[in-house]
Amino acid sequence: MKQVALLITVIWAFSVQAQNWFQVPTGTTKQLNTIDFPSGNVGYIGGNDSLLLKSTDGGQTWQELTYTGVTFVPGGEHIVQLDFVTENIGFMTVGPYTGAYKTTDGGQTWTLLPVSGNLCYTRTLYFTDENNGFIGGSGCFQGELINRMTNGTLAAATSPVTFDPEKQVSAFDFDGNLGLASSIGGRILRTTDG
């Protein structure tokens, strides 16, 4: 009888929690690729066809931003990932092969980051502050590549694992100096020294 009571309690708890999600209109039908909230009130969404949305009320309403500084090329006009370290300072990858950008004014203007080495396809990024972080993707005719920004300077942090540009770094996560990067190629890259 205790097992049945426990099962009913667990099912009830999950059903109560599932009711906390509700749909919020964004004003667009474009594909949404990434979302990031640097604070409880301010958040950003990036999507296909150069879509950039901003919320200043905790995601209840969204406004499309008109921004400058980003050069899109045919087939590379999608915002792939966003990572804001403050409400105004953030980074984005545009692609699949258009580059990585930085903003310091809440997404109004963007500056192209000078990636190092042969990093052609920028897919993901992870920043701890304005001047330190990682950009991942793949090289032209190469596999997984990572650039590391240290004190505002980007440098290549990996050598290609393969020579297949379809095998790209797809996500990062860090806990201190321990870092992991996943790859579309089915690999995990690991660092223990940041």
Could you give a short description of this structure?
The chain has 194 residues and is mainly beta. The protein is built from one helix and 15 strands.
Give the topology.
Layout (H helix, E strand, L loop, with lengths): L1 H17 L13 E5 L6 E5 L4 E4 L7 E2 L13 E7 L5 E6 L3 E5 L7 E2 L6 E11 L2 E8 L4 E7 L2 E4 L12 E7 L2 E6 L4 E4 L3
Antiparallel strand pairs: 1-2, 2-3, 3-4, 5-6, 6-7, 7-8, 9-10, 10-11, 11-12, 13-14, 14-15
Structure description:
With 194 residues, this protein is mainly beta. It has a single domain, classed as YVTN repeat-like/Quinoprotein amine dehydrogenase (Methylamine Dehydrogenase, Chain H). Helix content is 9%, strand content 43%. It is built from one helix and 15 strands, in the order H-E-E-E-E-E-E-E-E-E-E-E-E-E-E-E. The strands form four sheets. The protein has a four-stranded antiparallel sheet, with no helix packed on it. A hairpin with a 3-residue loop joins strand 6 (90-95) and strand 7. The model is unreliable at 1-10 (pLDDT under 50).
